[in-house]
Amino acid sequence: MNVSTNSTRFAVEINYIVDEGYxxxxxxxxxxxxxxxxxxxxxxxxxxxxxxxxAYSQWKPIAYTKAELGRKYQTKALEGGVENVVNRSWNIxxxxxxxxxxxxGLNVSFGLAKDGFYQKHKYLIWTGIVGYGEPATEPISFxxxxxxxxxxxxxxxxILFGGACYQIRKRWKKSKLNTSYGIIN
Length: 185
Known about the structure:
Layout: E1 10-19, E2 25-30, E3 42-48, E4 55-59, E5 62-64, E6 74-79, E7 83-84, E8 90-91, E9 100-110, H1 117-121, E10 128-132, H2 142-177
Antiparallel strand pairs: 1-9, 2-3, 3-4, 4-10, 5-6, 6-9, 7-9, 8-9
Membrane topology: Single-pass type I membrane protein
Function: Required to protect lysosomal transporter MFSD1 from lysosomal proteolysis and for MFSD1 lysosomal localization.
Keywords: Glycoprotein, Lysosome, Membrane, Signal, Transmembrane, Transmembrane helix
């Protein structure tokens, strides 16, 4: 696709169709997992509730300008605020249970202003997840807990053991010098 400007940016609008009285909640949470997005420790969640259940969308605030997922090819994915797309409630149809719904939109734009990434790379990849229910959380795995424990626990154990040995030896030498018996030669 040829573009006639050097400051092209792309955006995607995510639409949430929700029951009357509900609004999407967009939050950014920190996490430890950067397996699929190197050096990105944040996840954006769009959660919506309703009379009949909950739904969500989630994504990392990053996009890539090449198929290779590395820091060298990262560009930002910035989300705007949640806006009411249609200023009035609309009926989804007499057939669909006579419910009123609202449509909210959230824009996610890629790249920075005037960075020219599209003219340079002509490629963009961004991924996200949409689901029903509660969003999947990423618990800290046993291996990560083990590595953190070893990394912090081993030096602390060495310091405590070394300090205890030093104090015991120091007290032993002091008690040996303060004896009531004389030195025999």
